[in-house]
Automatic annotation (TrEMBL):
GO annotation terms (biological process): apoptotic process; negative regulation of extrinsic apoptotic signaling pathway via death domain receptors
Annotated keywords: Apoptosis, Cytoplasm
Major localization class: cytoplasm
Organism: Bos mutus grunniens
Cellular localisation: Cytoplasm
Family matches, as InterPro entries: FAIM1, FAIM1_dom_sf
Pfam families: FAIM1
Gene Ontology annotations for the cellular component aspect, listed alphabetically: cytoplasm
Name of the protein in its database record: Fas apoptotic inhibitory molecule 1
Keyword Cytoplasm: yes
Length: 179
């Protein structure tokens, strides 16, 4: 990878994906790697600016690398996810998902709740879940190995805060991480 010009890390529900971009400004070469795997290769592109679109992750999320000339032979590379700048996408994602990281049985786990669909992901796999109404809200039950887990959803009582989600594993609350 001699012409590596940009690297991004994108947190999706199925995990954090590494996107790498090679741009040969003399050869016109463009190569995109997702998690180390080549997904696009174009040689001898005479137009050095433009865009490359590809998919990332299990949900085949649309990603686009924009290549813009800044001045002379300098270029700027920006990544869009689902049509939004990476920054905007991540800001929006922090509002639509909750993420927890925990260590069980000598293994690290990343649990993500998609608030809009109520899908639960663990280490890149969509989990089988069972929802249940309880006195103060709902519980979404699933298992990680032999561990009983559930995500409890309760009203904050404040309109701006909305619903508060908590991950409980073996009757112990796991702190949420900021994405």
């Amino acid at each position: 990878m001699t012409d590596l010009v940009a690297v991004w890390e994108v947190a999706l529900s199925d995990g954090v994906h590494k996107i790498e971009f090679e741009h040969g400004t003399t050869s016109g070469k463009r190569v995109v790697y997702v998690d180390g795997k080549e997904v696009i290769r174009k040689e001898w592109m005479f137009k050095l600016v433009g865009k490359e679109t590809f998919c990332v992750g299990a949900a085949k999320t649309k990603a686009t690398i924009n290549i813009d000339a800044v001045s002379g032979f300098a270029y700027e590379y920006t990544l869009e996810i689902n049509g939004k700048s990476l920054k905007k996408y991540m800001e929006n994602r922090s509002k639509t998902t909750n993420t927890w990281v925990l260590h069980l049985d000598s293994e690290d786990f990343r649990v993500v709740l998609e608030k809009d669909t109520l899908d639960v992901w663990c280490n890149g796999k969509k989990m089988e879940t069972a929802g249940e109404f309880v006195d103060d809200g709902t519980e979404t039950h699933f298992n990680i190995g032999n561990h009983d887990c559930y995500i409890k959803a309760v009203s904050s009582g404040k309109r701006k805060e909305g619903i508060i989600h908590s991950l409980i594993v073996d009757n112990r609350e796991i702190p949420e991480i900021a994405c």
